[in-house]
Amino acid sequence: MNYTFDKNITVKKWEINIDTAEQYGCFEHNDTGHGGGLWFESNELVDYDGVFELPLSVIEGIELLGFNADYAKDDEDES
């Protein structure tokens, strides 16, 4: 599948790209090349791969692009 990444941002050394029509995105570290995929439903992050925990800079970038990234945040109220 070919994606048209119409939302793009770089936060620190992380590049984040999102195809809003397909509700899919990706992220990549500019120096190391490490990264992964991002899946959204109704502009809300519902899954990601490539890392155990999504880097805070990637979460920040997702939110700056207008998407909800609560799925990737730690729930401090969780027992």
Concise account of the structure shown:
This protein has 79 residues and is mainly β. The protein contains 1 helix and 5 strands, in the order βββββα.
Q: How would you describe what is shown here?
A:
There is one protein chain. With 79 residues, the chain is mainly beta. The chain has a domain at 1-13 and 38-73. It has one helix and five strands, in the order βββββα. The chain has one helix spanning 56-64; strands at 7-11, 14-19, 24-29, 35-41, 44-48. Strands 1-2-3-4-5 form a five-stranded antiparallel sheet, covered by helices on one side.
Ordered list of secondary-structure elements with their pairings:
Layout: E1 7-11, E2 14-19, E3 24-29, E4 35-41, E5 44-48, H1 56-64
Antiparallel strand pairs: 1-2, 2-3, 3-4, 4-5
**Strand tally:** 5
Distance between the termini: 40 Å
Please identify the structural class as seen in this structure. mainly beta
Query: Taking strands numbered 1, 2, ... along the chain, how are they ordered across the largest sheet?
Result: 1-2-3-4-5
The arrangement of helices and strands along the chain is: EEEEEH
Any idea what the shape is?
A: globular
Low-confidence stretches: none
Helix content class: 10-25%
Mean pLDDT: 93
| Number of helical elements | 1
Main sheet characteristics: 5 strands, antiparallel
Question: Into which percentage range does the β-strand content fall?
Answer: 35-45%
Question: What Rg is obtained from the alpha carbons, in whole angstroms?
Answer: 12 Å
